[in-house]
Amino acid sequence: MLLTACSITKQETTTGAPADKTNINFSATGNEPFWSLNIDFNASMHFKTIDGYELIVPTVKGEKAADANVTRYYSVTPEGALTVQIFNQPCVDNMSGKNNDFKVQVNLKKSGDKEEQSFNGCGNYLGTYQLNTIWTLQSIGSKNIDLKKTSNRLPNMELNLNEERVFGYAGCNRYSGSFKLEKDSITFGNLLSTKMACAALDVETEFLAALSAEKKPYKIVEGVLYIGKGAKMLTFKKVNVVK
Q1: What are the residue ranges in the chain where pLDDT is below 50?
Q2: Which positions ≥6 away from 37 have C-beta within 8 Å?
Q3: Residue 220, H or E segment
Q4: 45-98 pLDDT, tens digit each
Q5: With CB atoms 3.0 to 4.6 Å apart as the test, which of 62, 135, 167, 188 could cross-link to 236 if both were Cys?
Q6: Roughly how many angstroms between the first and final C-alpha of the chain, as a whole number?
Q7: What are the residues facing 85 on neighbouring strands?
Q8: What is the pLDDT of residue 91?
Q9: 217 CB contacts (<8 Å, ≥6 apart)?
Q10: Which residues of 209-232 are buried (b: 16+ CB within 10 A; e: fewer)?
């Protein structure tokens, strides 16, 4: 797996206090043996095992893979090093049978150990961070997207909450820009796009215009994201890569 170049400075700090549960943005668990992971993307990653071992490390900026839909976080303190990989693919808990949105792999290297321990499990983003994934556009208002008008691919949108950036495919061209979140609303900044020529640009033009409008409400209901309202409401479904 090739990761895009991204400078990650090793954190030579001591372990801190566990994150406030109200600030947990991503949570994961695994079995055989049981383990848990809670991430506050503004503070720390807190890893625990069933035998009572705990490691709390500072959260660092994730590395996005160039050739796979996975994000990697690596952080180290004098007590140990933690590598967390979040794969955007469905994951079923092998004990409870619960369906989760992301597969998770955690590699732990305790201080003084020569070898890493590897833990596999499932996880989900929580609260506002449920937005932090890739979404495919299903409809604009009451009109379903016609694939014949989008180069046979549904437009999509990837939201990165840590960087407040949006990326995606509009139906012909790639686009990117910034956004701001408030309690129940989202505002997109100026969106820049490539300038490829396509036979039909109606969907792309309408989609980008709806994204670039004023502040608009959003909500997530059972894996469906709604942005805006009325004739310009954009309806998206979460993307999961099945492997």
Answers
A1: 1-15, 19, 243
A2: 26, 27, 28, 29, 45, 46, 47, 48, 84, 104, 106, 121, 123
A3: strand 216-221
A4: 999 999 999 999 999 999 988 777 899 999 999 999 999 999 999 999 988 889
A5: 135
A6: 15
A7: 72, 105
A8: 95
A9: 184, 185, 227, 228, 229
A10: ebbeeeebebeeeeeebbbbeeee
Residue with tokens 């954190």: 11
**116-141 per-residue burial string, b: 16 or more CB within 10 A, e: under 16:** eeebbbbbbbeeebbbbbbbbbeebe
* pTM to 2 decimal places: 0.80
Q: DSSP for 223-235?
A: TEEEES-GGG-EE
Tokens at 127, concatenated: 């609260």
List the one residue out of 75, 66, 67 whose CA is nearest residue 41.
75
Written as six digits, the tokens of 20 are: 């406030």
Whole-number pLDDT of residue 29: 97
Report yes or no: 85 and 70 within 8 Å, Cβ to Cβ. yes
d(CA 125, CA 51): 26
**What per-residue confidence (pLDDT) applies to 5?**
32
Residue with tokens 């408030």: 182
Is residue 236 a contact partner of residue 135, using CB atoms and an 8 Å limit?
A: yes
Q: Which residue has the tokens 């890569």?
A: 241
Percent of the residues in the chain that have a pLDDT greater than 90, as a whole number: 71
